[in-house]
Amino acid sequence: EFLSSSITQLKVVQTKYMYVPGKLSDVERVLIDVGTGYYVEKTADDAREFFKRKIDFLTKQMEKIQPALQEKHAMKQAVVEMMSQKIQQLTALGAAQGATTKA
Fold first, then answer.
1. Which end of the chain, N or C, is more open, meaning fewer C-beta atoms within 10 Å of its C-beta?
2. DSSP class of residue 32?
3. Distance between CA atoms of residues 48 and 42, nearest Å
């Protein structure tokens, strides 16, 4: 669940860096949010580079987490299947012992 949540959060953060239509009073300098409530004034080109690096970083983090998530999911499925088999065996054993006791 933690890994699934992490990937979801990374995807949400990644989509925050998409462009939206708007008008700027100064097209040479922009104010960008660099995180935790801090804003920095940068040139438009520097801002583009900053967001490109940020998106690349987030994409790489998602690519790193995805295989671990798939592995954990496969392990969970194996455990669920094994538990289901054990429950069926115990149920069948209990039914067989109950039939033997009644006979």
1. C
2. E
3. 9
